Amino acid sequence: MVSMTLGIDVACRAEHQATFAVNGRPVWRGRKFFTRPAELERLWADLDLDDPAELTVVLEPTRNAWIVLAQWFRRRGARVVMVPTTQSADLRAYFSKHTKNDRLDSEVLARLPLLHPEGLREFTGNGSADPLRRLTKQRSTMVKRRTAVYSRIDAQLELLGPGWYAVLGSDYGKAALAFLARYADPHAVLRLGQARLARFLQARSRGQYGPEPARALVAAAKETLLLWGPDGMDFAELAADIAAEAEQAIFLNGQIKEIEERIANLYAEADPEGIIASAPGVGPVTSAVIAGRVGDPHRFTSLAAIRAYSGLVPKTSQSGTRDPNLGLTKAGDPLLREALFMAADHARLVDPQLAAKYVRLMSGDRHRDSAVCHLAANLLTRIAACWRTGQPYVIRDVDGREITEAEGKAIVKARYKIDQKKRVAAAGRRMKQRRIQAADRESQKSLSAPTSRPATTTVDTTQITVEVA
Fold first, then answer.
1. Where is the Transposase IS110-like N-terminal domain positioned along the sequence (predicted)?
2. Is residue 102 a contact partner of residue 60, using CB atoms and an 8 Å limit?
3. Which of 35, 162, 179, 369 would you call most buried, defined as having the most Cβ atoms within 10 angstroms of its Cβ?
4. Non-local CB neighbours of 116 within 8 Å, separated by 6+ positions
């Protein structure tokens, strides 16, 4: 059987380079082209295919530039596969360790289906062109940006004294942000007065704020002036800085709300049966992240492949009797791992099977984060199995009996508790082990290398002789 492959080294701004190979032997190399219809048509004509289904196009997922090429060739009937950049880099180093160029990269990709067919992943979805995938990432980025803005507001309010954040808190609502955007100057608060400030807060909090917060803010403003004295800081400039941060937070809140509405609509289309959301610990945002970042669950060859995609599987470097614990690969989607970690931490409080595994893992010297990562991989496997079969998640007791969420919470609370004393003792043992390992690493250094440990050398004064001239 004839195997025809087209390896394309994708560039973002420069020309792509392609190599066409038949049965692993290059027919032509280094064909340059841009992602333009006319140039793609010329490239397709040069292939001179009798059956487009016989062609395999091999791409590396380079930013978003590869998506357009993948869609174009797939629409023509070719089979499009992806290869991780790390695998292609290792194979390129085998061919030429000290040379790296676009032509060689395209040749490596063209030969890859013959050399390592198991490492290829067929492109079946829309990748980064999927709006749900993009929006979940965008929401995560905006939430982290908003958190940074809130932290800066906290730091700036500390200059005004504790009375301000005692009233406004750290989880700023609409009324608090509106107040900070206009009246972060204590002089402005006193000029406004308690009555008008109370009406301002009530209007922007829909009646939730009464006269008490206004009175407390006026008192906080007076306290600030007493703390700084008559020759204090420039409160007008500080208020301008706080207003800039508050306006950013208001804008981000509006954007996040709009994005969450779009995410809810897209998730309803991607998972109309709500199978992902049926899992314990998986809320509206987390379910959308899993659906958007995993994509089509059937594109993976097995459940183990889905776990590997999440990066929640341990590294392996076994040789003879040596099998060290190297931690997780973290080779997959970081947003997916973050969502699964938070979901697993909540699911262990509802699902008795996950709670039992958590207690078993924590009975040793394992760190809590390590145990939750194990649960996250387990939870992803269950969600993927339900997703692929079209069946909702069912909470069961350790004996397999189906139970409700309320029953699961009661069972976990009654049976599966972690002894805090054992956790503290285990943390102490882990700390002691890390110190021993650090000391061992330091003892392997040169004797003349600087050390962080105190010097142990003592001077024997009895051996010192003084020569008298």
1. 6-161
2. no
3. 179
4. 87, 91
In this structure, what DSSP letter does residue 461 have? G
- What are the start-end ranges of the H helices in 48-185? 65-75, 85-95, 102-115, 131-157, 162-168, 174-182
Question: For residues 8 and 55, what is the distance between their CA atoms, to the nearest angstrom?
Answer: 13
Rounded Cα–Cα distance for residues 194 and 214 (Å):
6
The rounded distance, in Å, linking the Cα atoms of 63 and 1 is 34
DSSP 299: G
Are 256 and 139 spatial neighbours (Cβ–Cβ below 8 Å)?
Answer: yes
Length of the chain: 469
Residue carrying the six token digits 């262990």: 348
Residue with tokens 């333009």: 36
Phi and psi dihedrals of 335, rounded to 5? -65, -40
Residue with tokens 């909470």: 395
Q: What is the CA radius of gyration of the chain?
A: 31
Instruction: Give the DSSP H or E segment for 28.
Output: strand 25-33
Distance CA 179, CA 210 (A): 14
Smallest CA-to-CA distance from 56 within 20, 29, 31 is with: 20
Structure tokens at 11: 């560039």
* Integer Cα distance of 44 and 146 in angstroms: 47
Residue position matching structure tokens 């970081």? 334
- DSSP alpha helices (H): ranges in 320-417? 334-347, 352-362, 368-389, 405-415
Mean pLDDT of each 10-residue bin along the chain, 469 residues long: 84 88 85 92 88 87 85 90 71 62 76 70 72 93 95 94 88 92 94 93 84 92 92 91 96 96 94 94 93 88 88 75 70 89 94 93 83 93 94 93 93 87 73 74 57 54 47
List the Cα angle 168/192/228 in 5-degree steps: 65
